Amino acid sequence: MTTAAELDNAKIQKLETELDPEMRFRPLLPAAGWLVAVWLFGLSCFHYYTAGFGLLPETLHRGIHISCVLGLIFLVFSWSQKGNAATPKAGLFAPLGIGIVDWLCAIAAVVTSLYVPYVFHDLQFRVGNPDPIDWIMGTIMIVVLLEATRRSVGWPLPIIAIVLMIYALYGRSLPGILAHPGNTWKSVVNHLYLTSQGIYGIALGVVATYVFHYVLFGVLATRVGLGRFFIDLATAMTGRFSGGPAKVSIFGSALFGMISGSSVANVVTTGTFTIPLMKRVGYPAVKAGAIECAAGVNGQLMPPVMGAAAFLMAEYVGVSYAEICKAALLPAILTYGALFYVVDLEAVKAGMTGLPRTKRRTLKEGAIKALITISSLIILSCAIYYGLGWTKDVFGESASWLAVAVLIVSYVALVRTRAKHPDLPLDDPTKQLILVPDFYESARTGLHYLLPVVVLIWCLIVEEMSPGLAAFWGVIAMAGVVLTQHPLTAFFRGSRALAPEWRPLFATAFFLGLRRGELLALQKEAIDLRD
Question: Are 153 and 144 in contact (CB under 8 A)?
């Protein structure tokens, strides 16, 4: 049951901008906008290539990643919040509407980021005793990195980093156990810039190798409509119970958390629908916001796409990301279960009711249909798991192509099933009454969305691929859904004018969507962990 307001992308963007400082981009002139779009598209393709066809040398891979991200930050974030709201004007000192200082900072960020990979083989002879050019480049890099962090997330992180650098320089002047011999600025720059324990350390490696791919998967999943499908499914399952909208918020956030590692994206996507509904059935505005906030933040804990900290845990602890996912699953379920229980108690205590249903079944009919559904899922899961194992023994390396063929046939069949039924009607949250749709009607409109998630989980957990390679195959599947679902649906509904269905999909998914900066925001958030 997707709402009209929920589909208002402009409203969602406005909410993201208000709630998340990392989404407060400056307005760009068309030429600058396309430059950023192409830059982001190239960055995505670079990471996509390295995930599927092998990494470059470690330092080069990290250098290319951070150079692109830092350069983009200076193009899409102004010097101040006031500048982010100003109308851009091109001029002699503002090429493409972006100030000349921002261009110089972007160039400095790119050059200093790529300097270390360029001289990497020579550094082994002078680490610990850098040449003047080394610590000068390092100083510029530290300054632009601090400024990029300030522009993107504010002052707290840069202040912490500056205080720690001051402590490293002047520790000899401090009293008691805080005192240490101190360091020269050259040695501080050497440690932060030229070694693998500073800017080019594990955190940057995790972001460049793993996090970006899962962010890309989550963005494509959101664009394709999987987030909306999860909300529809949650509404159909829990909306009719007492305090139903609050339970929709919890269940929908848990499902959306599977594909998004961002708390803000989770809250904005589900909250635009559930908060007005919670207020309508009797929840105070503050309590409705608190429930959505708690449910949305916990979405970072829900596998398979978790927050950036999960990848850092895997790298620092020395276990696979699949093991982190397995360990996180039960706590995530318990967290949402406890929140669901508390919300239910509040709803019963306040005498709240659920939302009316569009279709009612007897208890016997509901039980039989639920039993058939659960049994079918169990049988299908066992057939896939053991069937693929059997095909590997029989067909060897060809089994992978057989699995791909089965996946494509299943996808086309699910889209064909969807096309046979009309789309669910849009509900307006300003109306007095919203009906809970039938669960099975909601499910059949979006089961094909789940196939890329199944691919990701299968590659990660069953095949035990690396997180990057698993995300590679998941993104391939998700990109296929992005580009084909609407043309296929139109085809099965009898339309033969498919060109209009293709063009906007490609432009929206692979250029305009990236141009809006969602990948950049999460990339930058993970980069800031290094500071």
Answer: no
pTM of the predicted structure, to 2 decimals: 0.78
H or E element: which one contains 436? none
Burial of 285 (0-12, 13-18, 19+ CB in 10 A): exposed
CB-based burial label for 414 (10 Å; 0-12, 13-18, 19+): buried
Average pLDDT in the 375-397 region?
68
> Considering Cα of 455, then 460, then 466, then 467, what sign does the dihedral take?
positive
Alpha carbons 292 and 289: distance in angstroms, whole number: 5
Structure token pair of residue 291? 């429930």
Please state, in angstroms and as integers, the Cα–Cα distance from residue 364 to each residue in 144, 238, 372, 443, following that order.
Answer: 66, 19, 12, 21
CA-angle at 127, arms to 122 and 131, nearest 5°: 75
Alpha-carbon gap, residue 153 to 527, rounded angstroms: 11
Residue 2 has pLDDT above 50, yes or no: no
Query: What are the two backbone dihedrals, phi and then psi, of residue 281, each rounded to the nearest 5 degrees?
Result: -90, 0
Secondary element (H or E) of residue 64 = helix 58-76
Cβ atoms of 336 and 298 within 8 Å: the answer is yes
Residue with tokens 């046979």: 420
Q: Is 91 helix (H, G, I), strand (E, B) or coil?
A: strand
| pLDDT tens digits along 205-258 | 888 888 888 878 877 777 777 777 877 777 777 777 777 778 888 888 888 888
Half-sphere exposure of 518 (CA within 13 A, CB side): 26
Task: Supply the DSSP string of 359-420, one letter for each residue.
Answer: ----HHHHHHHHHHHHHHHHHHHHHHHHHHHHHHHHHGGGHHHHHHHHHHHHHHHHHHHHHT
